[in-house]
Amino acid sequence: MSTQEPPLFSADELAKEVTALVHRYEEGQAQQREFAASLEFRMRHVIKARKQWKEVEQGLPALLVEVRDAGWEPKQIAKLFDLTESYVYRKLREHNAQQ
Questions:
Q1: What is the pLDDT of residues 39-51, one digit of tens each?
Q2: Beta carbons of 96 and 87 less than 8 angstroms apart
Q3: Residue 36 has what pLDDT?
Q4: Would you say residue 2 has pLDDT above 70?
Q5: Residue 21's domain spans which residues?
Q6: In this structure, is residue 2 part of a structural domain?
Q7: Residue 13 above 60 pLDDT?
Q8: Predicted TM-score (pTM) above 0.70
Q9: DSSP 38
Q10: Angle at Cα 42 formed by Cα 36 and Cα 45, nearest 5°?
């Protein structure tokens, strides 16, 4: 049974289908770029980052104390975590006051 079935598309029809597919893809990409630049997207991004920071911030004082107790100086800790020295000192004081 070596009979060949006729192609589903002619070459011209296939070219039109591929062209239409590329056009739909490009439109979708343009829409995604517009959405990414939108205020709503930026707001969602900031809200998500803020929530993540709040989760990290809760455990940060204990981590700063642990790092200090491991022998790091507050100045080194500040640089390591990209924090100001005053923030590190304040969090260490707050943690010590709670003990």
A1: 888 888 899 999 9
A2: no
A3: 73
A4: no
A5: 11-98
A6: no
A7: yes
A8: no
A9: S
A10: 105
Q: Is 80 a domain residue?
A: yes
pLDDT, tens digit, 9 for 90 and up, residues 24-83:
999 999 888 887 778 888 888 899 999 999 998 888 888 999 999 999 999 999 999 999
Residue 85's CB: how many other CB atoms inside 10 A? 14
Number of domains, the chain: 1
pLDDT at residue 10 in the model: 80
| Nearest-angstrom CA–CA distance, 75 and 60 | 16
Is 5 a member of any domain?
A: no
**Any domain includes 22:** yes
The Cβ of residue 77 has, within 10 Å, a number of other Cβ atoms equal to: 22
The closest of 55, 58, 77 to 66, measured between CA atoms, is: 77
Helices (H), the chain: 11-36, 39-69, 74-81, 85-98
